[in-house]
Protein backbone atom coordinates (compact mmCIF):
# COMPACT_ATOMS: atom_id res chain seq x y z
CA UNK A 1 0.00 0.00 0.00
CA UNK A 2 1.44 3.36 -1.03
CA UNK A 3 1.03 5.92 1.77
CA UNK A 4 3.00 8.68 0.04
CA UNK A 5 1.04 11.94 -0.17
CA UNK A 6 0.49 13.27 -3.66
CA UNK A 7 0.81 17.01 -4.01
CA UNK A 8 -1.70 18.77 -6.20
CA UNK A 9 -0.70 21.52 -8.59
CA UNK A 10 -2.41 24.91 -8.72
CA UNK A 11 -1.97 27.68 -11.27
CA UNK A 12 -1.54 31.31 -10.23
CA UNK A 13 -1.91 34.08 -12.77
CA UNK A 14 0.76 36.70 -12.02
CA UNK A 15 1.40 40.24 -13.22
CA UNK A 16 4.83 41.87 -12.77
CA UNK A 17 5.06 45.62 -12.22
CA UNK A 18 8.76 45.73 -13.06
CA UNK A 19 11.28 43.75 -15.07
CA UNK A 20 14.01 44.49 -12.48
CA UNK A 21 13.07 41.59 -10.15
CA UNK A 22 13.57 37.90 -10.81
CA UNK A 23 10.50 35.96 -11.83
CA UNK A 24 8.91 33.87 -9.09
CA UNK A 25 9.71 30.18 -9.08
CA UNK A 26 8.58 27.25 -6.99
CA UNK A 27 11.53 25.13 -5.89
CA UNK A 28 10.10 21.63 -5.54
CA UNK A 29 11.46 19.56 -2.69
CA UNK A 30 13.17 22.44 -0.86
CA UNK A 31 10.28 24.38 0.69
CA UNK A 32 6.74 25.28 -0.21
CA UNK A 33 7.41 28.96 0.60
CA UNK A 34 8.17 31.21 -2.38
CA UNK A 35 10.52 34.19 -2.00
CA UNK A 36 9.32 37.71 -2.79
CA UNK A 37 11.67 40.58 -3.66
CA UNK A 38 11.80 44.33 -3.17
CA UNK A 39 10.67 46.03 -6.38
CA UNK A 40 12.45 49.32 -5.63
CA UNK A 41 15.46 50.63 -3.72
CA UNK A 42 14.49 51.63 -0.19
CA UNK A 43 16.45 53.68 2.35
CA UNK A 44 15.04 53.74 5.87
CA UNK A 45 16.19 55.51 9.00
CA UNK A 46 15.70 53.86 12.38
CA UNK A 47 12.04 54.20 13.42
CA UNK A 48 10.65 54.77 9.92
CA UNK A 49 7.74 52.86 8.36
CA UNK A 50 7.41 51.96 4.68
CA UNK A 51 5.20 49.86 2.44
CA UNK A 52 7.79 48.11 0.29
CA UNK A 53 6.39 47.19 -3.13
CA UNK A 54 6.98 43.57 -4.08
CA UNK A 55 6.40 44.08 -7.80
CA UNK A 56 3.66 41.48 -8.27
CA UNK A 57 -0.11 41.10 -8.32
CA UNK A 58 -1.70 37.66 -8.47
CA UNK A 59 -4.97 35.88 -9.08
CA UNK A 60 -4.96 33.12 -6.46
CA UNK A 61 -6.79 29.85 -7.09
CA UNK A 62 -10.41 29.80 -5.91
CA UNK A 63 -10.67 28.88 -2.23
CA UNK A 64 -7.11 29.97 -1.32
CA UNK A 65 -5.41 32.90 0.39
CA UNK A 66 -1.74 33.87 0.56
CA UNK A 67 0.24 34.25 3.78
CA UNK A 68 3.20 36.64 3.55
CA UNK A 69 5.93 36.57 6.23
CA UNK A 70 9.55 37.76 6.49
CA UNK A 71 12.32 35.38 5.49
CA UNK A 72 14.33 34.03 8.43
CA UNK A 73 17.27 36.29 7.47
CA UNK A 74 15.27 39.49 6.90
CA UNK A 75 15.74 40.97 10.36
CA UNK A 76 19.45 40.06 10.49
CA UNK A 77 20.20 41.35 6.99
CA UNK A 78 18.02 44.47 6.88
CA UNK A 79 16.98 45.37 10.44
CA UNK A 80 13.28 45.51 9.55
CA UNK A 81 10.23 43.84 11.03
CA UNK A 82 6.94 43.24 9.25
CA UNK A 83 4.45 45.43 11.09
CA UNK A 84 1.44 43.17 10.62
CA UNK A 85 3.61 40.12 11.45
CA UNK A 86 1.84 38.08 8.78
CA UNK A 87 0.14 39.49 5.77
CA UNK A 88 -2.99 37.72 4.62
CA UNK A 89 -3.97 38.33 1.01
CA UNK A 90 -7.36 36.94 0.11
CA UNK A 91 -8.40 35.88 -3.36
CA UNK A 92 -10.46 39.07 -3.90
CA UNK A 93 -7.23 41.17 -3.96
CA UNK A 94 -6.59 40.25 -7.58
CA UNK A 95 -7.04 43.33 -9.73
CA UNK A 96 -4.66 44.82 -12.25
CA UNK A 97 -3.42 47.40 -9.72
CA UNK A 98 -3.46 45.18 -6.60
CA UNK A 99 0.30 45.07 -6.15
CA UNK A 100 1.53 43.19 -3.08
CA UNK A 101 3.45 45.15 -0.44
CA UNK A 102 5.37 44.36 2.74
CA UNK A 103 4.69 46.87 5.57
CA UNK A 104 7.95 47.29 7.51
CA UNK A 105 9.38 49.19 10.46
CA UNK A 106 13.13 49.84 10.60
CA UNK A 107 14.88 49.13 13.90
CA UNK A 108 18.14 50.56 12.52
CA UNK A 109 19.23 52.61 9.52
CA UNK A 110 19.10 50.29 6.51
CA UNK A 111 19.14 50.00 2.74
CA UNK A 112 17.19 47.47 0.71
CA UNK A 113 17.94 47.13 -2.98
CA UNK A 114 15.80 46.10 -5.92
CA UNK A 115 15.63 42.30 -6.13
CA UNK A 116 16.64 41.71 -2.48
CA UNK A 117 14.65 38.78 -1.10
CA UNK A 118 12.82 40.25 1.91
CA UNK A 119 9.78 38.04 2.45
CA UNK A 120 8.10 34.85 1.36
CA UNK A 121 4.61 33.55 0.77
CA UNK A 122 2.61 30.38 0.45
CA UNK A 123 -1.01 29.77 -0.41
CA UNK A 124 -3.31 28.16 2.10
CA UNK A 125 -6.76 26.73 1.60
CA UNK A 126 -9.50 28.85 3.17
CA UNK A 127 -10.98 27.48 6.37
CA UNK A 128 -14.38 25.80 6.13
CA UNK A 129 -17.58 27.58 7.08
CA UNK A 130 -17.66 27.95 10.88
CA UNK A 131 -20.72 27.78 13.13
CA UNK A 132 -20.27 28.90 16.75
CA UNK A 133 -22.15 26.94 19.40
CA UNK A 134 -22.32 28.95 22.64
CA UNK A 135 -22.04 26.85 25.81
CA UNK A 136 -21.86 27.56 29.53
CA UNK A 137 -18.87 25.28 30.06
CA UNK A 138 -16.19 23.68 27.90
CA UNK A 139 -15.20 20.03 28.31
CA UNK A 140 -11.44 20.48 27.91
CA UNK A 141 -8.89 20.54 30.74
CA UNK A 142 -7.70 23.99 31.83
CA UNK A 143 -4.05 24.62 31.00
CA UNK A 144 -3.63 27.47 33.46
CA UNK A 145 -4.50 30.54 31.41
CA UNK A 146 -2.68 32.73 28.92
CA UNK A 147 1.08 32.16 28.83
CA UNK A 148 0.88 28.91 30.74
CA UNK A 149 2.05 26.47 28.06
CA UNK A 150 4.56 24.13 29.61
CA UNK A 151 4.36 25.62 33.10
CA UNK A 152 1.91 23.10 34.60
CA UNK A 153 2.31 19.41 33.93
CA UNK A 154 -1.22 18.58 35.08
CA UNK A 155 -4.38 20.31 36.14
CA UNK A 156 -3.93 18.48 39.47
CA UNK A 157 -0.69 20.42 40.08
CA UNK A 158 -2.49 23.67 39.29
CA UNK A 159 -5.21 22.79 41.79
CA UNK A 160 -2.62 21.96 44.46
CA UNK A 161 -0.82 25.27 43.87
CA UNK A 162 -4.07 27.18 44.19
CA UNK A 163 -4.83 25.29 47.42
CA UNK A 164 -1.38 26.14 48.81
CA UNK A 165 -2.05 29.81 48.14
CA UNK A 166 -5.44 29.58 49.82
CA UNK A 167 -3.86 27.84 52.83
CA UNK A 168 -1.18 30.51 53.16
CA UNK A 169 -3.81 33.24 52.96
CA UNK A 170 -5.87 31.65 55.77
CA UNK A 171 -2.98 30.33 57.90
CA UNK A 172 -3.06 33.33 60.23
CA UNK A 173 -6.62 32.41 61.33
CA UNK A 174 -6.11 28.64 61.64
CA UNK A 175 -3.69 26.19 63.14
CA UNK A 176 -1.85 25.12 60.00
CA UNK A 177 1.70 23.69 59.86
CA UNK A 178 4.31 25.98 58.21
CA UNK A 179 4.75 23.63 55.20
CA UNK A 180 1.55 21.65 55.08
CA UNK A 181 0.96 18.49 53.10
CA UNK A 182 -1.94 19.97 51.15
CA UNK A 183 -3.81 16.73 50.54
CA UNK A 184 -3.60 15.64 54.20
CA UNK A 185 -4.56 19.12 55.46
CA UNK A 186 -7.52 19.33 53.07
CA UNK A 187 -8.74 15.88 54.10
CA UNK A 188 -8.54 16.85 57.78
CA UNK A 189 -10.59 19.97 57.01
CA UNK A 190 -13.11 17.98 54.91
CA UNK A 191 -12.35 20.16 51.88
CA UNK A 192 -11.67 17.36 49.39
Q: What structural keywords apply?
A:
192 residues, alpha+beta, four-stranded antiparallel sheet, three-stranded antiparallel sheet, 3 helices, 11 strands, elongated
Detailed description of the structure:
With 192 residues, the protein is α+β, with helices and mostly antiparallel strands. The chain has three helices and eleven strands. Strands 2-11-6-8 form a four-stranded antiparallel β-sheet. Strands 4-9-7 form a three-stranded antiparallel β-sheet. It has a two-stranded antiparallel sheet with strand order 1-5. The mean pLDDT is 84.
Q: What is the overall shape?
A: elongated
Helix content: 10-25%
Report, as a whole number of angstroms, the end-to-end distance: 54 Å
- β-strand percent reads 25-35%
Q: What kind of oligomer do you see?
A: single chain
Order of helices and strands: EEEEEEHEEEEEHH
Overall pLDDT score: 84
Biggest β-sheet: count, sense, barrel?
A: 4 strands, antiparallel
Count of DSSP H/I helices: 3
Question: Which stretches of 5+ consecutive residues score pLDDT under 50?
Answer: none
* Class by SSE composition: alpha+beta
How many strands in all? 11
Instruction: Please give the order of strands in the largest beta sheet.
Output: 2-11-6-8
